[in-house]
Structure formats: structure tokens, C-alpha cells
Amino acid sequence: MFGLFDAFRNAWRLPDVRNKLLITGLILVIYQFGAHVPVVGVNRLALEQLLTSQGGGIVGTLNLLSGGAVRNFSVLAMGVYPFITAQIIIQLLTPLIPRLEALQREPGGQDTLKRYTYILTIPMAILQAVGQINIFGALGGQPIIPGFGSDPMLTIAVIATMTGGTMFAIWLGELITEQGIGSGLSIIIFSGIVAQAPTHLGQLLQGTTQPIWNLALFVAITLISVVIIIIITEGVRRIPVQYGKRVRGRRQYGGGSSHIPLKVNAVGMIPLIFAQSIITFPAIVVNLFPAGPVRDSINQSFGSQQGLLYWATYFLLVVGFTFVYTDIMVAQQNLSDQLQRNGGFIPGIRPGKRTQEYIQRVTRRITLIGAFFLGAVAVVPGLVDLLNRIVFPNEAITGASASSNAALVISGSGLIIVVGVVIETMRQIEAQLVMRNYEGFMS
Predict the structure, then answer these.
(1) Using one digit for the tens of pLDDT, what is the confidence trace for 220-268?
(2) What is the pLDDT of residues 106-163, one digit of tens each?
(3) How many CB atoms lie within 10 A of CB 300?
(4) Pick from 23, 282, 326, 394: CA 20 to 30 A from residue 183's CA?
(5) Do 67 and 418 meet the contact criterion of CB atoms below 8 Å apart?
(6) Which DSSP state fits 141?
(7) Are 273 and 65 in contact (CB under 8 A)?
């Protein structure tokens, strides 16, 4: 902790690093101003009821990714989520489309793929604007924006405003990356999580007759989660790599050894986003059919995010998506080809296909730990809800919102983002300090 404050104090003494920190802070303030500008025609009462009843589900996830803008259904209500979705789509399509795969390997190909991602973000933002408004209306039982869909001018204005807000948020994130400190998009999401935490904590302490129990539970969950997240996030399996020696004339080149770092959790919180997006569909689709016991049961489980069926399905989806997305990422990196081009090899493993199979096998083994870790993070609110029911059986405590569940003050997804952003930002500040000290030493 003292090292953290020392690093910031030392960084503040350097004018250029101090300017980067000030620019980052100014952009975050601008974003928070935008997060409080509501979209025209929003039904505030319906939105508040939805957030109270569905704060731990996809509504809470979208609010998390928008930096808290969903709470006001502002012009930034979609945040950078359409851009994240476009990135995921491009990543999934790259190994399936030969042209994209070849483009990825060309000089400047990554910049072209990033430009495609920006272009794809616009239709994704339009689709999400329509889908988000309709899903919120279906979950809440009343329209969030009355007249949306039936009033053409209102519909066009809302879609254009929300799409423009998304592109503005992406631009602010890119400004932080270029002119400030840290990864811009992650910093924006991080700031929203931190900004909402005091409000959620206040709701937790006021919304129950057991404030001391909830506070102690919140502190315990946060501390234990942060320690485990750091261990898993920083966990790396190092595969040894040996480089062959080359002789040209009288000189010898190459040789030496290195390693390939394979992270235990290489995909961050992406599987949680995938699973949370999919698990809400049963409650939405079932409402299209006549009322009956099956419909009521599915609504009770998947609509209210409660019960063994919901949490077991959520856990399995997170674990499954972790394996699938990790496999895709490893395949895209083409580690075996890169080793072969650079004259490297894994001792005891033949270059080429055997090397790729070995890397894939090792990755799947260590991903098992990362997958169960993410699955456990996903179901912590359900476990806390169960614990509350056991300890206080006479109280109506549910896991629907942060006002009654200590695990939702800062969700598991939010903690993963917070810890990851803090670690990455500290590394960048440390690199800036080392570089400045090195220059001063040389001069």
C-alpha cells in the first residue's frame, strides 16, 4: 500500500507524468458529466423500478460496462460495450475468414482490423440501442421510453443520440490511451465502478435490519476476492523455449533460452459478459408464449436471477465460454509458427503442428483453474443470498440488488476490472518512472 502511494507521489513530481494524470482525470470528469445527461423521453420511474429489481442481472452488467450511465439512461448508456462486442466479433471471425487471417499477419494489418472494428461498432451500437430499450421494457414490465418504435422521430433521435454517445465514449477512451495513463476503455469502466461503490454500499447498509452483518460480509468478500483475483490474474505457466544457434562466417548468432508465458486467466471477464447476455434470453423468450407453470417457473428462475437452476446454468455457461474463448485466442496467436520463424523450439517437442498441439493442451489444463475461478466469481451473489437465508431465515433477503446482497456492491466482474486496471496502471506509471530516472542518470 505504501509503495502505491510512493509511486504516485514520485510520478506527481515529474511534469510530463503529472500532465498525463491530469489529462486522465479531466477526461473522466467529462465522461461523468455525460453519464448524467439523460436520453430524451426516459420514464424515470420505470427505470428506477427496473434497476431495483434487476440490478444484479444484465442490467447491472450493462450499468457496469457503461461506467454507471445506465442508472440515468444517459446518452452514454451503452458505454463502450458495442465496441467491445465488435472487437469480440472481429476476433472470432479472423480465424474463420482467410482474408482476415492473412490481413492480421501483414504489416499494418492490426491497424486495418482496428478500423474495421470501429466501422462495425456503429451497426452494433444501433442494434444494442434498440435491443437494450426493448429488453429493459420486457424485464421491467413497462416501456423505458414510451413511444419508442411507434413515434418515428423519437425513435430516430434516441438511436442517433445513443450511437453518438457510444462513439464519443470510445473517443474519450482513445484520448486517455494516447495522452493519459493506462488503457482508456478500461479506465472509463473502472471509474464508473468506483463512482457507484459508495452509493451501493449506502444502499446495502440502509436496506436491511442487519447492517453490521452486511458490512462485515462486504469487507470479507472484497478482501478475499481481491487476493484471489490477484493470484489468478498474475498466475502464469512458463513454457521453456530454446533458440538454435546460427553461424555466419566466423560469427555465431542466436542461441539462448526464453519462455512462453501462458496466463491462467487469459480472457479477463469476457466469459462473464457472454454468459450474462445469454442467460437472460429464456426469461425474455418465454414471455412470448401463453401463461402456464413452465413459463412461471422460468420467469422465477431466470427473470429474478434466483434459484439453483439459474446459478448452475450461469456457472456452466461461464466455464464453457472460458474454454471456447481461450482456445480461439491461442489459435489466433499462432505461437508455433512464430517460434519456427524465429528459430525457436520447445525442448522435447517437434516444431510445427506438434508444438501447437502441446501449447493447446497445456493451455486447456491451466484454463481449467481460470474457468472454475470465473465460474465461482459469477455465482458468489447466489452463495451470499443462500447464506443470508440460512443466517436470517425470517427476513425477506433476496439477491436481486446491491441493497440486499453484499456481493453486488462491487460485483465479481467489477472487482476483476478494478484489480486488473490498478495493476496495469501501476505498471505503466512504474515504467514512466524508470524511463525518466534512466534518462536523468544518463544525462
Answers:
(1) 888 888 888 888 888 888 888 887 666 566 666 556 677 888 888 887 7
(2) 777 788 888 899 999 999 899 888 888 887 877 777 888 888 888 889 999 999 999 9
(3) 14
(4) 326
(5) no
(6) S
(7) yes
Phi, psi of 395 (to 5 degrees): -105, 145
C-alpha 317/C-alpha 357 separation (Å) is 25
Dihedrals phi, psi of 290, to nearest 5 degrees: -60, 155
Q: Which helix (H) or strand (E) segment is 152 a member of?
A: helix 152-179
C-alpha cell at 88: 469480440
The three-class DSSP label of residue 59 is helix
269 in Cβ contact with 374 (< 8 Å): yes
pLDDT tens-digit map of 33-80? 888 888 888 888 888 877 766 655 667 667 766 767 787 888 888 888
**Residue 301: CB atoms within 10 Å:** 20
CA atoms within 13 A on the CB side of 174: 9
The residues, any chain, with a CB within 8 Å of residue 3's CB and separated by 6 or more, are: none
**Cα angle 164-21-87, degrees, rounded to a multiple of 5:** 40
| Contact indicator for 405, 384 with CB cutoff of 8 Å | yes
**Which is nearest to 402 in space by CA: 390, 385, 419?**
385
Give start and end residues of each alpha helix (H) in 292-407. 293-298, 308-333, 335-341, 353-391
Domains, the chain, with CATH or none? 16-206 (1.10.3370.10), 209-410 (1.10.3370.10)
pTM assigned to the model: 0.75
